[in-house]
Every structure is written in C-alpha cells, then in structure tokens.
Structure to design on (311 residues):
C-alpha cells in the first residue's frame, strides 16, 4: 500500500506536496492532473516521512524517521528534520530541489506533525507522538528543545491502540497551538509563549474523534482526518473555550469507496481552489493490518465553501 502521510500546498504554484509513510519519498502532485506525480526527493537511511511545514517561500521542513507497520512502532533514535528548498526545483528544466539535514533528534520518540512557530527566528514545532510532547527546532542554529514535555492532553494512553498521543499540529495567530491527540480522541488547543512553551493548560475543542491530522479554515473551524474511520469531520471552534459542533463531511467506517483512510489535508491557494480541501489518504487501515489492499493511497478534493487558514 501507499500511505500518503502529510500534504502541503506550495505558495508559489499551488502544486501539492505529499510525504509518504510507507517509503521515504516526497512527491509533487498537480491538483489539475496536468502531469503524473513527480518524485522530488528520496531520503536514504529512513523508511518514513511525516510532518511538513512551509517556513519560507517554497522552503519546507520535513520530519523523517524509521517506522515499522508490522509492529506499529518507531525505531528509537531515528528521527531527523530536513530542509527542502524548492526555489531551485523545476519540473520542465529538470533541476532538483536543494535538500539538507537540519538536525537529528535522538531523544524524540516518534516525530509527526510540524508547524512553523516563527519564520523570522526560524523556529518550528514538531509533535512527538510516542512521548506526547512537542519539540522546537531552530532551523538556523539546529538547536533542539523539548518545549511542551508534560501536557496531559498530549500524552498517549498506555495500552490503547494506536499508542500515539499528539499527532497533527497547527499554529493560529502565532500564539495558539491546535493539536490532535490520537488515542485520547481529542482535538485541543494550548496558548503559547513566544518561545513555544505552553502559557497554560491545554483545553479540548472536540472529543471522541481519534483523528490523525487536521487543518483549519479562515474562520477557525477544524477539519479532522480520521483514517481509522474513513471520515473527514468538520468541527466548529468556540471562542474562549468549550467544545464545538461536529459534522461529517465525507466517508464512513464501512465505506472505502469515498475516502479510504484520510490522513491529512490542506487547502488550495489559488482563486480556483482556495475553498477546496485536498485530502491525502492511505487506502484504509485494514490493508495495513491484514495485508489485503483494495484501495490505494490517493489525493481527493472536497469543496467546503470556505478559505483555508494560512497564517
């Protein structure tokens, strides 16, 4: 199977970037199917690519590691962060992207979602699903800091599968970290200090949804990608706290034909697709547990009528 783990939309061209969990590869995909998927770069020494964030125009940072789908666990001390500079990349001139390693994170358990905290200082935040923590990496100095080590809502519940706590992360207005905590089934948020540490306890926005990743629209509503349930769920957010109302936008547990195993998503960035959500999927969790794949990984488009949030 092909597990599309995370997607981003380039600010320069509106092309979709997709990281794969089943191989250490980054692809570019045309939202209009103008050309076949293009392999941007393969990362030797790793098995899995995860979170991706655009910190500078066409400069992306990607988490890489080693993960076993047989044991559903990560290899210790295998996590790293890479920079992929697409300013040099050209599909037609066949010029490659510039790729370099920023830092190894040997103390991380399993890096996952990534978000830019401050592009001026070069700080990004990365979820650690195994430890239930959030790391900060400065992409200029390669300094690594565990900035949110002990928040209970980020922790995985021992013995409950999948053993993943904080998973997807997005930052709104520079000071509010939204997150999914997968095996707690929570979409939450926590106020941040300027250095990325928590300014107070995290609160729940929605519960009962074991989401993988999510994204936000311009109104602050969240779109949850629930790969184990084959669903995309919209959650209205409540100013000042409290849990929002949830609505299923697409899919169902028994339906693999509509959207099988949605894992992540991002809004388009042009006048033609700025209210459209591009959703990456993995073909459905049963294929990975039983080895019987009936649907492949794919990118789907859902028109939601609202613009995405792009900080």
């Amino acid at each position: 199977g092909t597990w599309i783990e995370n997607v981003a939309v380039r600010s320069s061209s509106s092309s979709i970037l997709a990281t794969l969990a089943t191989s250490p590869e980054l692809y570019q995909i045309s939202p209009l199917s103008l050309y076949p998927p293009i392999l941007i770069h393969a990362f030797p020494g790793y098995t899995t690519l995860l979170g991706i964030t655009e910190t500078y125009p066409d400069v992306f940072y990607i988490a890489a590691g080693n993960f076993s789908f047989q044991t559903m666990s990560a290899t210790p001390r295998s996590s790293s962060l890479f920079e992929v500079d697409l300013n040099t990349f050209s599909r037609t001139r066949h010029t490659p992207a510039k790729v370099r390693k920023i830092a190894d994170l040997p103390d991380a358990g399993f890096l996952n979602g990534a978000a830019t905290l401050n592009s001026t200082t070069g700080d990004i935040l990365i979820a650690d699903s195994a430890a239930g923590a959030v790391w900060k990496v400065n992409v200029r100095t390669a300094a690594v800091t565990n900035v949110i080590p002990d928040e209970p809502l980020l922790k995985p519940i021992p013995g409950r599968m999948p053993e993943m706590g904080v998973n997807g992360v997005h930052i709104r207005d520079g000071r509010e970290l939204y997150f999914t905590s997968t095996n707690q089934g929570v979409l939450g948020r926590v106020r941040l200090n300027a250095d990325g540490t928590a300014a107070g306890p995290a609160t729940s926005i929605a519960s009962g949804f074991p989401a993988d990743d999510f994204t936000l629209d311009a109104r602050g509503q969240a779109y949850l990608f629930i790969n184990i349930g084959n669903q995309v769920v919209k959650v209205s957010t409540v100013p000042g706290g409290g849990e929002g109302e949830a609505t299923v936008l697409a899919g169902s547990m028994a339906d693999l034909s509509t959207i099988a195993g949605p894992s992540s998503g991002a809004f388009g960035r042009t006048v033609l697709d700025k209210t459209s959500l591009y959703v990456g999927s993995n073909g459905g969790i049963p294929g990975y547990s039983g080895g019987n794949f009936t649907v492949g990984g794919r990118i789907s488009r859902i028109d939601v009528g609202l613009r995405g949030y792009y900080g």
Summary: The radius of gyration is 18 Å.
